Each structure stands twice: as structure tokens, then as C-alpha cells.
Amino acid sequence: MFASSRDATPRDIALQLLSRREYSRAEIAQKLKQKAVATADIEACLDTLEEQGLQSDVRFAESFIRSRIMRGQGVIRIKGELRQRGISQEIVAETLATVEENEGVDWFELASDTLSRRFSSPGESPKERAKRERFLASRGFDFEQIRYALSCL
């Protein structure tokens, strides 16, 4: 098993994290900083893990995007959350394009499906319609996708 937390090396801590799920490089660095690991040691550890293929921001982003699509979240929110987790714009753009192509993601249909799971009608009053629009906007869908989803109910 793993050494006690006092004896654990930065690599031990990082591997323990990665054994549960994918993490971005920035997330692991933050966790190691919380454990009072020196910045130079963190960088060396992360470089080694990346070279060995044990940590990959691309793999993290792919996993993250797929999980968020399954939750019914839109591209705007997904991009924002990936940026918060330290993923570069280039990786976000490339990975989104790859997942969209491989999975056949249709953001308009995803918005429609997400809305229909929560609401059974587009809303009778402007207030009810606005509630549905806010719901989809908070999920990260753009105006065109929201309009399409409302037209499908």
C-alpha cells in the first residue's frame, strides 16, 4: 500500500490521486502544494509523471468532457471548467473537437434532451420560458442551442 502521509513522496501522493481518477497537472500541483511540497519537487514530479504517461492533460480533458456531456452540460460551461482546472486553450479546443467527432456530439440535440428531462413544456408564460432559458444557459448552452431546445418541446 502507500506509505503514511508523513513519509509519502510527491510521486506517492500524485499516484494515489491518479489511481482514483484523471487529474490535470494544475490540480495535482495544487494538491501537492497543500501538502507543503517544494515547488521544484512538484515540477520535477509532474514532469516525470507526464513523461511516463501517467498524467496527461489531454486524457484528463477527454474524460472530463465526456462526463460533462453525460450530465447534459454545454460547451460554454465545459470550456470554462477546463480553464479553471488549468487546461490550456489549445488542449481544450483540440480535445473538444476530437470528442465531438468521435462521439458524434450534437450540442443542439443535447440542449433539447437536457431541457426535456427537466421540463415537459416550453412554458406558457414569458416568466416560465425565461426560467427554461436560464436553466439551459446555466448549463452552458448558447442562445441558438437554447432557442432550438425550446422549439423542440
From TrEMBL:
<protein>
    <recommendedName>
        <fullName>Regulatory protein RecX</fullName>
    </recommendedName>
</protein>
<dbReference type="Pfam" id="PF21981">
    <property type="entry name" value="RecX_HTH3"/>
</dbReference>
<dbReference type="GO" id="GO:0005737">
    <property type="term" value="C:cytoplasm"/>
</dbReference>
<dbReference type="InterPro" id="IPR003783">
    <property type="entry name" value="Regulatory_RecX"/>
</dbReference>
<dbReference type="InterPro" id="IPR053926">
    <property type="entry name" value="RecX_HTH_1st"/>
</dbReference>
<dbReference type="Pfam" id="PF02631">
    <property type="entry name" value="RecX_HTH2"/>
</dbReference>
<feature type="domain" description="RecX second three-helical">
    <location>
        <begin position="56"/>
        <end position="96"/>
    </location>
</feature>
<feature type="domain" description="RecX first three-helical">
    <location>
        <begin position="11"/>
        <end position="49"/>
    </location>
</feature>
<dbReference type="InterPro" id="IPR036388">
    <property type="entry name" value="WH-like_DNA-bd_sf"/>
</dbReference>
<dbReference type="InterPro" id="IPR053924">
    <property type="entry name" value="RecX_HTH_2nd"/>
</dbReference>
<dbReference type="GO" id="GO:0006282">
    <property type="term" value="P:regulation of DNA repair"/>
</dbReference>
<keyword id="KW-0963">Cytoplasm</keyword>
<feature type="domain" description="RecX third three-helical">
    <location>
        <begin position="108"/>
        <end position="150"/>
    </location>
</feature>
<dbReference type="Pfam" id="PF21982">
    <property type="entry name" value="RecX_HTH1"/>
</dbReference>
<comment type="similarity">
    <text>Belongs to the RecX family.</text>
</comment>
<dbReference type="InterPro" id="IPR053925">
    <property type="entry name" value="RecX_HTH_3rd"/>
</dbReference>
<comment type="function">
    <text>Modulates RecA activity.</text>
</comment>
